Amino acid sequence: MRLLITRPKDDAEPLAELLGGRGIETVIEPLLDIRDLVLPAAQMGHLLDGVQGLLVTSANGLRAFARASKRRDLAVCAVGESSANAARQAGFSHVDSSDGDVVALAAAVIDKRRPGDGALLHVAGTQVAGDLAGVLEKAGFEVRRAVLYEAVKATQLSPAVQADIAAGKFDGVVLFSPRTAESFATLIGAARLAEACRQMTAYCLSPAVAEKVRAMDWARLAVADHPDQQALIRIIEE
Predict the structure, then answer these.
(1) pTM of the predicted model, to two decimals?
(2) Which residues lie closer than 8 Å to 167 by C-beta, 6 or more apart?
(3) Tens of pLDDT along 220-238?
(4) Which is nearest to 158 in space by CA: 3, 2, 1, 4?
(5) Cα separation, 211 vs 217, whole angstroms
(6) How far apart are CA 202 and CA 205, in angstroms?
(7) Distances (CA, A) of 204 to 105, 144, 170, 182, 226
C-alpha cells in the first residue's frame, strides 16, 4: 500500500514512521505550512499572568507555545493524545488528554479544573474550530487566547505528486482536518486530477473531514470511528 500524507511536516513525519513500521509506504505532501506568530514579551507575560493551565487543541499550538515561552510549570489540558504527546516531548509534566474533540476537552476541563484557580490560556492558530471558550466561560472559567501560529495553505500540489496521482501510484490519501481536506479537493480540481482519485481511498479523521471531500468520486471514503490518529491507522490497516 502507498499513501499520500497531507499533514504539516512536524505531524506527518511521525505518522509516516508509524505507517512504515506496518509496511505501508508513504509520501509526505504538506498542504498547510505552519508559521509562528511572535507576540511581544509584554503581551505574552500579560496573557500568562495568573494562568492555571493551557488549553491545547492541536500539537501545532503546543509546539508554537513551547518556542515562544520557557514556562513548563503549567498544567496542559490537551484535546487528544497527539497534542498531549507533543506537550510531554516539550517538557511539560502535568498533562491531561481528553477524548479527541473540543466537546470532550471542555467536559474534561470542567470536571478536573476549578474556575477559582486561575485563567486558562488557549494556545491556538488564527483559525479555531468549535466554541471551546464559550462553553468554558458559561461554566465560570476565564479563557484567554494566544494566537501563536498561522496555517498557510499550499497553492498547488508538487509536480511529482501530481504525476503519481495521474499514474495511479497512490492507493489512498490521509486527511486529518477539514481545512486540509478542503484544500486537497481544491488543488485536485485545479490540477484536473479528479478522475484519477476514483482509484484512491480517502482516509478521514472525522465526519467533518469527510464532508469536505464527499463530492469527489473515490474508490472508498473511509472515516475513523473516533477522531484520533490511532483510530485512523486502524481503518488504514483494515
Answers:
(1) 0.84
(2) none
(3) 999 999 888 889 999 999 8
(4) 4
(5) 13
(6) 10
(7) 21, 31, 16, 12, 10
